[in-house]
Each structure stands twice: as structure tokens, then as C-alpha cells.
Amino acid sequence: MLTEESGLERKFCAAGGAVTMREGCEIAGYASLFGVRDQGGDTVMPGAYVAALKRLAARGGKVKMLWQHDPAQPIGVWEDVREDAHGLHVRGRLLDDVARAREAAALIAAGAIDGLSIGYRTVRATKDAGGRRSLTELDLWEVSLVTFPMLPEARLNGKAEADEAAALEEMAAALRRAGEVLAGS
User: Where is the Prohead serine protease domain (predicted)?
Assistant: First the structure.
């Protein structure tokens, strides 16, 4: 879904399993993927965030973490926002002292919330004959936790991490039992 209000665009765009929740309040993942066309027909190109991130750093600013793009509902802080070869990677913390952040953490843990979305203003883009845009420079304002990400495969993998942790615990227990059997023989 692409919405525009006062020049601010919001794009739901995380890729399957790219967003994770750790240690109760820490979240990380890709808020945008390069070269992947979204449901609105836009493709973010590598380098699209570089200038905006430099401007923010120069003035001591930060990309905001919001709930469902609502500027009245900040729920945490992004501690690291950077481009890499795949896209825009974010890492941050939900704030325990914020009621909505506690709700978000519970919803993430339950698998009810599983997407990231970016709020930005397009600085430079090109359009093809079909009207699809290649976004080459964006002024990034915020990254939100959202219910419905732009890409159908945009999902949190917190459940997969829980399943992996349970599998590792089972494996460790099996190895302990095997060690006890071997020690007894």
C-alpha cells in the first residue's frame, strides 16, 4: 500500500523472515529491499538512502520508529539504520515504558504483527512506460511496525527463532543424555 499525505510516502516493505525480535524488546530486519518491485509498482534502487542517512547523521537526527505510521505513536528507537547490499537494514528497541510498545511486543511474539514499512519523500525517481518508478533517492523519515506489509512475503521470523531455540534445546538435551549413556558404559 502506498499512501501520500503532504509529500510523505509510506511503503510497506520487508522481506520474508528478514525482521526478527530478540531479547523481548530488540527488533531488527530489512525495512526495504533493493531491486524488488512492490505492489505499488515501485522499486527502490541501491544508494537511495545514502544522502538522507548522511543528512540525519550530520544534524544528530534519527529515523523515527512508529506504530502503523502514526506520528502520535512512537514506540521505540532505531539504533542502527544502514544500507547494505540487500537493502535498508534497521535495528532498534521497543521501549518498555511505552504502553503501545508493550502491546507491539506481545503482538510480535504472537505472530499478529509481522511487517515493517517505510515513510519517506521521493527526491529522485524515474518512471518506465508503464508508470512504474525506480526510486533512486529517498528522504527517509520513519520506519513503522505494521500489520500489512507492502510485499506479501514480508514477514517477521520471530516464530522461526522460537522454533529454532526449542530445537537447539532438544538437541542439547539429547546430547546430554547420550553423554550420560556413554559415561555409564
Answer: 26-159
Tell if the pTM clears 0.85, that is, is over it: no
DSSP the chain: -EEEETTEEEEE---TT-BEEETTTEEEEEEEEBT-B-TTS-EEPTTTTHHHHHHHHHTT---EEEETTEEEEEEEEEEEEEE-SSEEEEEEEE-TTSHHHHHHHHHHHHTS--EEEEEEEEEEEEE-TTS-EEEEEEEEEEEEEESS-SSTT--B-HHHHHHHHHHHHHHHHHHHHHHHHHHH-
Residue with more model confidence, 3 or 9: 9
